[in-house]
Amino acid sequence: MTQFLPPNLLALFAPRDPIPYLPPLEKLPHEKHHNQPYCGIAPYIREFEDPRDAPPPTRAETREERMERKRREKIERRQQEVETELKMWDPHNDPNAQGDAFKTLFVARVNYDTTESKLRREFEVYGPIKRIHMVYSKRSGKPRGYAFIEYEHERDMHSAYKHADGKKIDGRRVLVDVERGRTVKGWRPRRLGGGLGGTRRGGADVNIRHSGRDDTSRYDERDRDRDRERERRERSRERDKERERRRSRSRDRRRRSRSRDKEERRRSRERSKDKDRERKRRSSRSRERARRERERKEELRGGGGGGDMAEPSEAGDAPPDDGPPGELGPDGPDGPEEKGRDRDRERRRSHRSERERRRDRDRDRDREHKRGERGGERGRDEARGGGGGGQDNGLEGLGNESRDMYMESEGGDGYLAPENGYLMEAAPE
């Protein structure tokens, strides 16, 4: 197919010209010829340095070692400075220390924003103040956080020393102490390794109110009081826990007893309900048995002589069928017709009695259901047709069919109500 393409398209598929071969500029590594072959280091051992002539190895200092070295050097320099200052320090010849040392109070940890007038107002409550000297930095001129207060009377200074320690001024609790530089022999200030820094005890819970005083007996007494208070709190906490445990046990026992009583009451109620149901079931069974017995007696009475007894009520004063032979007897001229008539009458009577028995059965069931809810022997006696309270209504010797017929069709002076069987008076006309 390509041979049919035009020349301009065939030129696109034409191969390129081959690459011309050019000789390499130098030989390949495997083609080069070495002047000296490869050899070991044995010929060069004589050129090495003798180990006995080599200098000892030097070890570089690590970062931790350098930091430790600097710290030691700093401590040594500080010790030298402290020793130099201790030789020059003399509190009795200090020009800044003026006034009576036994009337001067030292106040430390003062807020930097607290002024001299504020200190005067706070400490004048203990007595008249003679002089207040607040210490400032010589370089920056800012307050250093402590001051000296000189009272006019020594008793006022003792009162402030006793009651003002831990007092909060401008949001900070100050530390109050006597001036120990001129009153305590061998005492050194804090900048020379002594002072308040060496008398701190414990953590922040100990140093909140009273901290920095150099009265060890006072601290020991506080520690004993604090230990006693802690033990008392622990004992009270243990007693509270034990009391709460006993209360919880008693509550659990009461709850369990209440639950047992509730369960027992529920079971007793269920047992009483079961007994009531069983009693109702027995009473219903006894009523059912009595009803069946009554129906059986009625059926027996209706099947045996009920038809003959009901015949005079329908036929008036006519003699029975099995009476003495007369003009309509079996020997008379109308004997077969009379027999067929009697048969039809007996069939109709049996059908009627069956319908009446069924109706009476339904009535008795309804009455028994209504009276069974009230639950009384009197209702059952009335349902049987005996009448309430020994009342004689003239229906004692009649069956259920005759009584119901009488109750429904009786008129005149009174009638029996079908609801309860009582003899009711007729309404006046």
Automatic annotation (TrEMBL):
Q: Where is this region: Disordered?
A: 48-79, 187-429
Where it mainly occurs, coarsely classed, is nucleus
Q: Where is the composition biased (Basic residues)?
A: 246-259
Biased composition of type Gly residues is found at 192-201
Q: List, for all copies, the residue spans of the domain called RRM.
A: 103-181
Residue ranges, compositional bias (Basic and acidic residues): 60-79, 207-245, 260-277, 285-301, 336-384
GO terms for cellular component = nuclear speck; precatalytic spliceosome; U1 snRNP; U2-type prespliceosome
GO terms in the biological process aspect are:
mRNA splicing, via spliceosome; regulation of RNA splicing
For this UniProt entry, the molecular function terms from Gene Ontology, in alphabetical order, are:
mRNA binding; U1 snRNA binding
Q: Where in the cell is it found?
A: Nucleus speckle; Nucleus, Nucleoplasm
Print the keywords alphabetically. Nucleus, Ribonucleoprotein, RNA-binding
Q: What does this protein do?
A: Component of the spliceosomal U1 snRNP, which is essential for recognition of the pre-mRNA 5' splice-site and the subsequent assembly of the spliceosome. SNRNP70 binds to the loop I region of U1-snRNA.
Q: How does it assemble?
A: Component of the U1 snRNP. The U1 snRNP is composed of the U1 snRNA and the 7 core Sm proteins SNRPB, SNRPD1, SNRPD2, SNRPD3, SNRPE, SNRPF and SNRPG that assemble in a heptameric protein ring on the Sm site of the small nuclear RNA to form the core snRNP, and at least three U1 snRNP-specific proteins SNRNP70/U1-70K, SNRPA/U1-A and SNRPC/U1-C. Interacts with SCNM1. Found in a pre-mRNA splicing complex with SFRS4, SFRS5, SNRNP70, SNRPA1, SRRM1 and SRRM2. Found in a pre-mRNA exonic splicing enhancer (ESE) complex with SNRNP70, SNRPA1, SRRM1 and TRA2B/SFRS10.
Write the protein's name.
Answer: U1 small nuclear ribonucleoprotein 70 kDa
Q: Gene behind this chain?
A: SNRNP70
